[in-house]
Design brief:
By secondary structure, this protein is of the alpha+beta class. It has helices at about 10-25, 55-60, 70-75, 80-90, 110-120, 185-190, 215, 255-260, 280-295, 310-320, 335-345, 400-415; strands at about 5-10, 25-30, 50-55, 65, 95, 100-105, 125-130, 135-140, 150-160, 160-165, 165-170, 195-205, 205-210, 220-230, 235-245, 250, 270-275, 345-350, 350-355, 360-365, 385, 395. It binds flavin-adenine dinucleotide.
Length: about 425
């Protein structure tokens, strides 16, 4: 039966949901508060939009941090492979880069939005821009002849007037980068229907650290390092790869991933350990130090570590090892060498805060998935009410997985509506 469907939010998940709902023969209205669709998509992947990851649903699930199991069905129904085909069929030429990250060949995020928008327009979705939804409520129909299947209808109040619908898909996003339009409105709509929401916290963001060591090295980026987080001596998570020192602490790929595991922890209990030479065992690093020292016996130690450490790190590492940079190598004691080794293999940083949610790439938390049907994205509390995308308590690592979540959940909602 043809239904009147309102989709709130014209981001990646909302456009996907609107298109598939319209394809199924429903009358679909897409309401977007901004002057254009997909404002967040424009800034994704540094303007290039890493829109999915060419991996199996099982592999993609391993990159989802919150509630990966909830995504099993949706990812199988609309996996990365189908998302790639969907965009190609829509005329987007695509390419796959390092780590199976998929981008538009043009390197223009706007082409991803254009493709989605064209799909929607061709399927007959009525797109209403500059229309902010203020409230959604359920009304019980009184006239039996206009009763919809499940006896519910929704009243939607927007700043342009009142609308009604048989089904509503909430695709309002999370709280990160609110200038793109995602200001958490969907959480309020969900709560007004009795849904629980998990507190929204930043994920994929920089980490502020105590002290001045990191700030002193700001601008320095490191490759092939291992960054681990421990709480009360137990490892929480560990990532190998790249990171960057900044004025507030640390950022870069490994740090973003790590932040998604720290966002609900009391940070004073957490210790970050950076292994600057993860490919070397302690013994191998000691041998390397001895060789380097032997080659430059009479030089100041501050001048012989250049082969092992970036220049900007040498003074910081030596300070932590309690060795003066002027100290001649031939007078460095065994104990001092041990301290140096430890400062290189276990460079400790104490996190003081995560960067604010406004700067986070995604929001962790949101509408609790326990009250959502994972196959259809329909509310278990209110028939006809659906949620998709970042408004749900789902978040993943970088690599195209967050947009994949938006597409898979949007597909599920649009088809089920
Ligand atoms: C800087 C940055 C880079 C990123 N890069 C990537 C990447 O390369 N790959 C990746 O997979 N993910 C990336 N992400 C994450 C990804 O962009 C999001 O997870 C995804 O866009 C979420 O889609 P969504 O449709 O659920 O929400 P959104 O894109 O946030 O869309 C929600 C829409 O709803 C509208 N809206 C909200 N409230 C209302 C209302 N009351 N009435 C009407 N409209 C409303 C908003 O204006 C917005 O357009 C990045 C995020 C950021 C911030």
């Amino acid at each position: 039966m043809e239904k009147d469907v309102i989709v709130i939010g014209g981001g990646a998940s909302g456009m996907t949901a609107a298109y598939f709902a319209a394809l199924r023969g429903n009358r679909v209205v897409l309401l977007e508060k901004n002057e254009k669709l997909g404002k967040k998509i424009y800034i994704t992947g540094k303007g290039r939009c890493n829109f999915t990851n060419d991996s199996s649903p099982e592999e993609a699930m391993k990159h989802i941090v919150s509630n990966p199991k909830f995504m099993t069905g949706a990812l199988r129904a609309f996996p990365p492979e189908s998302v790639m085909r969907f965009f190609e069929d829509g005329g987007l030429r695509i390419k796959t880069e390092r780590g199976n990250r998929v981008f538009p060949l043009s390197d223009h995020a706007s082409d991803v939005t254009k493709t989605l928008e064209q799909y929607c327009r061709k399927a007959g979705v009525e797109i209403c821009l500059k229309e902010t939804v203020r409230s959604v409520s359920k009304k019980q129909c009184t006239m039996p002849d206009i009763l919809s299947e499940n006896n519910t209808m929704f009243d939607i109040l927007t700043d342009c007037g009142a609308r009604t619908a048989d089904a509503v898909i909430v695709a309002t996003g999370g709280l990160s980068y609110p200038t793109t339009g995602s200001t958490g409105d969907g959480y309020r709509f969900a709560r007004e229907f009795g849904h629980s929401t998990v507190a929204a916290v930043p994920a994929l963001c920089g980490i502020e650290t105590e002290g001045t060591d990191c700030a002193q090295m700001q601008g320095l980026s490191l490759k092939n390092v291992r960054l681990s987080a421990l709480r009360k001596g137990r490892e929480i998570a560990s990532f190998f790869g790249e990171m960057l020192f900044t004025h507030f602490g640390i950022s870069g790929p490994s740090v973003l991933s790590l932040s998604s595991h720290l966002n609900r922890l009391p940070l004073p209990e957490v210790e970050l350990r950076l292994d600057l030479k993860p490919a070397l065992t302690d013994g191998q690093l000691d041998q390397r130090l001895l060789r380097d020292f032997d080659a430059d016996k009479n030089k100041a130690i501050g001048n012989v570590l250049g082969g092992l450490l970036p220049k900007a790190m040498i003074s910081v590492v030596l300070r932590r090892a309690n060795i003066s940079p002027q100290k001649p190598v031939n007078s460095v004691t065994k104990a001092e060498r041990k301290g140096l080794l430890s400062a290189i293999k276990c460079f400790i940083m104490i996190p003081s805060a995560l960067r604010p949610i406004e700067e986070a790439i995604v929001t962790a938390g949101g509408v609790s998935v326990r009250e959502i049907n994972p196959g259809t994205m329909e509310s278990k509390l209110v028939p006809g009410l659906f949620f998709c995308g970042e408004v749900l308590d789902l978040d993943a690592y970088t690599g195209g997985f967050n947009l994949q979540i938006a597409f898979s959940t949007g597909y599920a909602a649009g088809n089920a509506v």
